[in-house]
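Handout, page 2. Input:
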Amino acid sequence: MEEQPGLSDQYRTASPWPLLVAVGFALTEVGVFLGLFPIAVGGVLLLGGSVAGILGESGYARRPWRTLALLGAGFAVLGGALVATQVPGSSVTLFETVADPNGVVGRGLAVAVAGVMLVAAGVVSQAVGRTGQGI
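Output:
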């Protein structure tokens, strides 16, 4: 008789990525819709990192770093588009609007900042991975 009935080595263990994707998505929604900048940035970072991780683990991406950078670029473009639709054309009012953002500009900036951070993390991680040296 087996010591642990029902368990076998042929079954894989559960992955933590689906839970992290769900938490990242929820934090992103809460942060963006309520205008909470740090929570929105953290949620987008968690969402982007989790999606890249789950794609790497499932075999859809050879390395998650390129996927992370591409997701970050997408978020940066989306956030930049939100900001661009809300700021006026003159450069003086642009700096005033970015320094003290209204609702939509602040939300777009949060998504764009998180996207730039994801791109930076993906590029640095890929460069460190090529050299084989840790930081």
